[in-house]
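DUF2292 domain-containing protein, pasting as requested.
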Amino acid sequence: MAETGKQIVPYELVTLLQNLIVGKFYGELVVKFEHGKIVHCKKTESIKLQSN
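Structure tokens follow.
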């Protein structure tokens, strides 16, 4: 999820988290708050390498 300038409301963040958990997301989620409001949300997926 790239920064789009669209303000994310709390229920959208909850839905995003639920989808990441169900999908077994492996990566990083950064959420920035200012004055109690979500102003930035960025999702970065990673690839987990298996060692031989």
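Note for the archive: The radius of gyration is 13 Å.
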